[in-house]
Design a protein that fits this description.
The structure holds 2 protein chains of 2 kinds.
Chain A lengths: L19 H4 L6 H8 L4 E6 L12 E6 L11 E5 L6 E9 L3 E5 L9 H4 L2 E2 L3 E8 L2
Chain B lengths: L2 H11 L3 E4 L12 H23 L4 H32 L2 H6 L3 H17 L3 H21 L11
The chains are: A mainly beta, B mainly alpha.
C-alpha cells in the first residue's frame, strides 16, 4: 500500500472514503506528542457516535489548526464550529466548494451534518485531525 | 511501557475540550419498561383466557368476556412488539452490537414471541416473552452503566 497516514493521503473522490486505508487515523507518534507539548496541536475528546467506527465516543484526538490561507481537503476529518452555534463538531469533509465545505458523519445513520444544516463556511473549520491522542 | 500511564495521567489531569460527533435525536427517551408492561398484560390476559375456558364459555356473558380478553391480548402483544422494535432500531447503536453480539438475535426472537403470543393462547410463550424482555432490560441499563432493578406490576 502506497498510502501514508491521514495527514499525507488525500482522496480525490468521495468513493475512496469507503477505502479503510483512507479512513485510518494514526495513533500518537512522538513527533505529534511534541507538537502538542509545543502547543501546535489541540486536544479534543469525541462525544457521540456519528464518526463510528473510525472515531469512537470517549476517544481523544489531536488537531492541527488551519492557517488562514489553508483549506480543508476532501477526506479530512475536521473539527468545525456548529453552524447552529454553541459547540464544536467533528465530521468528515465530503466536498469542498469555493467558500463552503460539505461535511458528513461516517456513520450516516447516526449523524446530524450538512445533510441537515447544509454546507458550512470554510472559515468555520477549526482544524484537521492529525492523530489519536493514545 | 510508560506511554499508556502517562497519557491517561494527562487525560485525567487536563481534560480535553469536547467535539461532538453528534446526532439530533427527537427526544432520546427510551425505557424497556413500556414493553414490559405490555408483555405483562399479555401474560395476564392469556392466563385469564385459559381460566375462563376451563370454567366454560357457553353463556353469552362468558363469550363476551372471552372476546374482550382476546382483543386486549392481541392489542398488548402488538404494543410489546412495537416498543421492542423502537428500542432495537432507534436506541441501540453499532457499538452496542459490538459489545453484545447476540443483540440482533435477542430482539428478533423477542419480536417473534410477541407474534406467537398474539396468535396463540400460550402461557408458556407469554412467560418466555417476559424472560426475553427481562434480558433486554438488563442489556439496556448496562449500556447506560446503570443498575436498574427489574420490577413487575403483576
Amino acid at each position: 500500500m502506497g498510502h501514508g497516514g491521514l495527514t499525507r493521503h488525500v482522496p480525490d473522490k468521495v468513493d475512496e472514503l469507503t477505502d479503510p486505508v483512507a479512513q485510518v487515523v494514526p495513533s500518537l507518534s512522538l513527533a505529534e506528542f511534541l507538537l502538542w507539548v509545543a502547543r501546535r496541536r489541540k486536544r479534543f475528546k469525541v462525544i457521540g457516535d456519528s464518526m463510528y467506527p473510525v472515531l469512537k465516543a470517549g476517544e481523544e484526538l489531536l488537531l492541527r489548526p488551519l492557517s488562514r490561507t489553508e483549506s480543508a481537503r476532501v477526506g479530512d476529518i475536521v473539527v468545525l464550529n456548529d453552524p447552529r452555534g454553541g459547540r464544536q463538531l467533528v465530521k468528515r469533509v465530503v466536498r469542498v466548494e469555493a467558500d463552503e465545505i460539505w461535511v458528513e458523519g461516517d456513520n450516516r445513520l447516526d449523524s446530524t451534518d450538512s445533510r441537515t444544516f447544509g454546507a458550512v463556511p470554510r472559515a468555520s473549520v477549526v482544524g484537521r485531525v492529525t492523530c489519536r491522542f493514545g | 511501557m510508560l506511554k499508556e500511564p502517562m497519557l491517561s495521567w494527562v487525560k485525567s489531569t487536563f481534560p480535553a475540550d469536547e467535539v461532538h460527533a453528534h446526532c439530533d435525536g427527537p427526544c432520546g427517551i427510551y425505557d424497556p419498561s413500556s414493553a414490559r408492561i405490555a408483555a405483562e398484560a399479555v401474560l395476564s390476559m392469556t392466563k385469564k383466557i385459559v381460566a375462563l375456558y376451563e370454567d366454560g364459555t357457553n353463556s353469552l356473558a362468558a363469550q363476551n368476556t372471552l372476546s374482550r380478553f382476546i382483543a386486549i391480548k392481541e392489542e398488548e402483544a402488538q404494543k410489546a412488539k412495537d416498543e421492542l422494535l423502537i428500542l432495537w432500531t432507534d436506541y441501540f447503536k453499532p457499538p452496542h452490537v459490538e459489545k453484545y453480539p447476540n443483540l440482533h438475535d435477542t430482539f428478533w426472537k423477542a419480536a417473534k414471541l410477541c407474534s406467537a403470543c398474539k396468535v396463540e393462547v400460550s402461557v408458556e410463550h407469554a412467560e418466555e416473552l417476559m424472560d426475553a424482555i427481562k434480558n433486554i432490560h438488563g442489556i439496556f441499563w448496562a449500556t447506560k452503566n446503570r443498575d436498574v432493578a427489574w420490577v413487575t406490576a403483576g
